[in-house]
Amino acid sequence: MLNVPVYNESGKQIGDEQIDEALLGGVLNHALLKQAIVMYHANRRQGNVAQKTRAEVVGSSRKIFRQKGTGRARMGNVRTPVRRGGGRAFPRKQRDYRQDMPRKMRRMARQQAVLAKIQSSEALIVDGVKFDEPKTKRFAALLGALQADRGCVFATNGVDANLLKSGRNLQRANIVNVADLNAFDILARRRLVFTRDAFETFRQAAAAAGKAGE
After folding, report:
1. Does residue 29 contact residue 112 with C-beta atoms inside 8 Å?
2. Does residue 109 register a pLDDT over 60?
């Protein structure tokens, strides 16, 4: 069993929660994590560059001047790639860089990312956090007390509007619904912070996924 420390808002440890490492894959699969990160990076690429060939640029197809008798080098039309304003010889075209992974692999990559954070002591749970109104200063102080102000993913159970508004201006903090967590978001930040409800939801989902895979 793995222990995940539980802190209060002032940054004092008040206990811990346990999760079975078997639910997270047991042993880290570095190849799977790399494949997931490459996929998420590739899916962020736009790939909408479009350059024109000599057949697509505007211009006459007439030869600029005759082949012989002028004393000049032979020359084709104005759309040739060797002239300014002509088409590209090997133009770049629109391309879809998207990659795909089976749903079970994406889910296991997420579990493995959480396992990596727990094993490196970069995962924690915060208890008793409730914002009645948006307060960025309070949320920043919370991250500072948890030593998560240098970069963290803050997972909540559902969408907490006040918490989201409190942290959306902090560049190094991502506030996400625990159901929307993925391996890329988890590994892109230094620390992983769960609310207690979010951690319980994650643990139940991991247990249900484990039973479904048996």
Report:
1. yes
2. yes
